[in-house]
Amino acid sequence: MEPEGVVNVLRRLMTALVPGGPLVDLLSVPPPERVEVGGELLGELDGSAFFPRALAAAGGLDALAVEGVLVHEHEERFPIFVRYPTGADLVEDVAQREYTRMPAALGRRVRAIAGPCEIRDNCLVRRFRKVA
Amino acid sequence: MLEIGSGEGRLTWGFAPLAASVLAFDPDPDYVAAARADCPQELREKVRFEVASAEEIEVPPQSVDLVFFSWSL
Fold this sequence. Notes:
The complex is a heterodimer of chains A (132) and B (73).
Chain A: H1 3-14, E1 22-28, E2 34-37, E3 40-44, H2 51-67, E4 70-84, H3 87-95, H4 104-111, E5 117-130
Antiparallel strand pairs in A: 1-5, 2-3, 2-5, 4-5
Chain B: E1 2-4, H1 12-15, E2 22-26, H2 29-38, E3 47-51, E4 67-70
Parallel strand pairs in B: 1-2, 1-4, 2-3
């Protein structure tokens, strides 16, 4: 969705929220997701097509805060780990995604992993409140 | 509460017990079907999953106490 479209959608959705009600936004942020085995880094996924879209969308909430529709109250960064039984499972899961890609060389290495492995995703959660 | 981007419901199961009711949207019909199928029995009365993107959602004005966007914008 284009940034202007995001702001318009958000503005419309905000009418559903009661005055003073909270809005929580959870999103993935750079650096790119890491593929790890037992805590050891194997490589990073290619988020070059994903992050511009995600961050532009997040900017829609910032725009509403600037307009005075929302107040930004709090934010926290934290990792999320998605665990897979084998490397092939991880590769197949990433292949389903629309904007994040597995670099070919990394994909070959990950597919060869017979045991558990994981993706570490860097997340940001932000809490806003609708101005009464 | 209103959840946008509910996916297969993996986060919904965590907060739904604390909510009076949850209206959850995701644009992927496969995810919504999976969430409906996996919805715990004790939550079936209070959680409703619907297929819609953020652009398509229609909710009455001032009808929700909390909005949650999960990787959805």
